[in-house]
Design goal:
The chain has a single domain, classed as 2-Layer Sandwich (60s Ribosomal Protein L30, Chain: A), CATH 3.30.1330.20. Helix content is 19%, strand content 36%. The protein has three helices and five strands, in the order E-H-H-E-H-E-E-E. Strands 1, 2, 3, 4 and 5 form a five-stranded mixed beta sheet that branches. Strand 2, helix 3 and strand 3 form a beta-alpha-beta unit.
């Protein structure tokens, strides 16, 4: 990324099911859904959202190998997307194991994200 313009941060949780992809997508939506970038087109090359670069940095507590990178990228509506995954986030108890919610145990996964926007 040549020029970093905007950074958004968020957190996502999968309370039941221990699904790191669900928690990651929720973190991204948490980061981007309370922001607006009305002047972004004017500063992008060729004034095109296709030239926007979006780097998604995920801090994931466990099961990184099961992360669905394509589903994570689809949470961002525009631009050229990349994903970086690092150790982080949190695992804690949900207090109850619910088999009908696809629980394998009583743990909830918490993922942190930084969404970097530029060109």
């Amino acid at each position: 990324m040549k020029q970093l313009i905007f950074i958004q941060t968020g957190m996502g949780v999968d309370v039941h099911g221990q699904n790191v992809t669900k928690a990651s997508v929720r973190a991204i939506k948490n980061a981007i859904h309370s922001n607006s970038m009305p002047g972004i087109r004017e500063i992008l090359p060729e004034q095109s959202l296709d030239n926007m670069k979006v780097n998604i940095k995920l801090a994931v507590p466990r099961d990184k190998d099961s992360l669905d990178y394509e589903e994570v990228k689809q949470a961002i509506p525009y631009g050229q997307k990349s994903v970086e995954v690092m150790d982080g986030g949190m695992i804690t108890t949900s207090g109850i194991e619910l088999k009908d919610k696809e629980d394998k145990n009583d743990l909830m996964y918490i993922v942190n994200v930084s969404v970097e926007v530029g060109y």
